[in-house]
Write a structure and sequence with these properties.
Layout: E1 2-6, E2 9-13, E3 18-23, E4 40-46, E5 52-58, E6 72-75, H1 83-86, H2 89-95, E7 100-103, H3 122-136, E8 142-146, H4 148-158, H5 164-169, E9 175-179, H6 188-197, H7 199-210, H8 218-225, H9 232-245, H10 253-258, E10 271-277, H11 285-295, E11 300-302, H12 315-328
Parallel strand pairs: 6-7, 6-8, 8-9, 9-10, 10-11
Antiparallel strand pairs: 1-2, 2-3, 4-5, 5-7
Helix pairs in contact: 3-4, 6-7
Length: 331
Amino acid sequence: MAVCVSGSHTIFMNRSNLKTVAVLSREKKMGVQYDLKKGQSRNFHELPSGLSMEVIVQKGAEINKNVEYPPLVFVHGSYHAAWCWAEHWLPFFSSSGYDCYAVSLLGQGESDAPGDSVAGTLQTHARDVADFICRNIRSPPVLVGHSFGGLIIQYYISNLGSDNLKEDLFPKLTGAGLVCSVPPSGNSGIVWRYILSKPITAFKVTRSLAAKAFQTSLPLCKETFFSATMEDHVVKRYQELMKESSRMPLFDLRKLNASLPVPPVSNCPFEILVLGAKDDFIVDIEGLKETAKFYGVPPVCIEAVAHDMMLDVAWERGAKVILSWLNGLEK
C-alpha cells in the first residue's frame, strides 16, 4: 500500500480503492491551476522511488450492472499533463460507464520531479504507468496515449509476454488506443520528411516545440495543436496550462531515438486502435500509417481535427470513435 498526498488530503492507494484518510497540505507545482470538474478528484500515487505521480480520477456512471467496463488509463504527451484528458474525455467516457484515470508523468503537471535534467526515459515512464496500474487497478485496463504518451504505451506493450517477471512488472491490458501517436521508430522520420517536402512546416514545428515558441506565440500555439476555428481565448487558456505543465523535458530526445524502434510484438493478445487526425501539424499521415502497420491494424484518420484531439473544437469526434471501439471489445 502506498501513502500519497492529494491537495489537502492524504491518500492511501492500493489495488482495490482510493481512500481519503487524513488532511495535510501539498505544495502546488503549477503556477496556473486546473480546476477539476464535477465528479473528478486529484490523487497522488507514490512510486517505488518515493516520488508521487498526479492522477485525476473520474469514476464511471452506473449504466448497466450486467456489463463489465474496463478501466481507462490515459497517458499524455510532451507539454501536457493529466488535465488535458480531464477537460472533455474523462467526463465523456465516465458518463458512458468507464472508470477513468489520467496520470501526469514525473516532472509534469502536479507530479514530483526527479533530480535530473529530464523527466525520465521511455522505460522509466512506462514502468511508472505500470506501477500505478499494478497497485491501483483491479482489472486489466485499456491504455490510451497521446503523442509521446502513445510511444510510452507502445513500449509498455512490447514488455507484455509469457515472461512471468514481465507480467509482474507490466500488468495485462484489455486494449490500447494510440492517439496521434509518435510512431515506433520515433519522430526523426517525420522530421526528415518535413525538411525534405515541407521545409516551412519543418521550421515552424522546430521553432514551436524544440524552441518552445508555442508558449509565447498564440498563433503558433494554435497552428501546432489546434484547429483554426478554435477561439483565441480557449487557445490562450490551454497555452497557459501547457506552459506550466512541463517543468522539465519528458525525454532526452537523442537518447530516446537511439533506443528506438520499439521492439516488435508477436501475437498481441488484445486489440489496438491507431487513431490519427487529418489536420495534425506534428504527426503526419505516414507516421500514422507506420504505427498501424507495425501492429497490423488499419489506421483510423479523423477529418477536421488537429493534433490535440482531446482538446480540439471537435474533440467529441475522436471520443466517439474510441467509444465505438471500446464497445466492440469483449467485456
